[in-house]
Specification:
254 residues, mainly beta, 4-stranded antiparallel sheet, 14% helix, globular
């Protein structure tokens, strides 16, 4: 009987351990140039919504709810940043003059400039109950962003752990990697760029006679916890210019 009990206990332990292992899954979220999210918009109307951005700092932007067109003039926006864009989008109405767009600004920082930093020529269709994304222009925004939304704004439920940040970012100048939780900075690391490889016989101070190693690489291992309800923005910003490349974040979900 004692032996049988030990066998049963062993099977239970194995079963529980198997469940714990299976419950943890890893995924890598990648964002290439011009794919970083500036604003997320949820359509709570019972009609389709179409957001047309002619230019991020232009007067010819509009949002159509059903058959009703709302002009979104961002040419003279005050303030000319994410918070100002969010306020104007939240004021969009349907034929009954009811509002119905929910704006998630946690994928950026409220003070992020939108004076020509939003990607031009965006045409976004959002069905009722769905989310849509307004994107950054990497060349003017100067950063690659990955956003992990919390459970309250459509993200997956359960705690998460950021296991690593990886990237191959074209451009010039140092790279600053930040992690924000609900727009509050929690992590920063600066990666010096360019890095020089000395040519044969060149002095240490003579960078003109050295070879530049590029593009700049990011390879950071970590165990950074994120709670179920927390919205997490991972940003890799270049100091002078940003061109092509991608930023990847390895996320472990429980």
């Amino acid at each position: 009987m004692k032996k049988l009990t030990l066998i049963i206990m062993g099977l239970v332990v194995c079963f529980m351990a198997g469940n714990l292992i299976a419950a943890e899954a890893e995924d890598v979220v990648y964002k290439q140039e011009d794919k970083s999210i500036a604003l997320r918009v949820k359509n709570t109307f019972d009609e389709k919504v179409r957001i047309v951005i002619d230019a991020g700092d232009g007067a010819g932007n509009y949002v159509i709810v059903g058959s009703i067109s709302n002009n979104i003039d961002w040419a003279g926006l005050t303030p000319e940043d994410i918070s100002g864009c969010s306020t104007s989008l939240a004021a969009v109405v349907n034929s009954e003059t009811n509002t119905g767009l929910v704006i998630d600004t946690e994928c950026s920082l409220d003070a992020d400039s939108t004076d020509d930093e939003l990607l031009d020529a965006q045409d976004i269709t959002i069905q009722p109950g769905d989310w849509g994304n307004i994107l950054w222009d990497t060349g003017t925004h100067l950063s690659f962003d990955v956003y992990i939304p919390g459970s309250k704004v459509g993200g997956t439920s359960g705690p998460k752990t950021i296991k690593g940040i990886y990237g191959n970012l074209g451009g010039t100048g140092n790279i600053t990697v930040n992690i924000y939780k609900d727009q509050v900075e929690k992590y920063e690391r600066v990666i010096v760029s360019p890095v020089y490889l000395l040519s044969a016989g060149s002095p240490l101070t003579n960078t003109a006679a050295a070879d530049v190693i590029g593009p700049a690489q990011i390879d950071i291992e970590m165990d950074f916890p994120v709670k179920n309800s927390e919205n997490c923005l991972i940003r890799a910003a270049r100091a002078s210019s940003a061109t092509t490349g991608s930023l990847g974040v390895k996320v472990q979900s429980k």
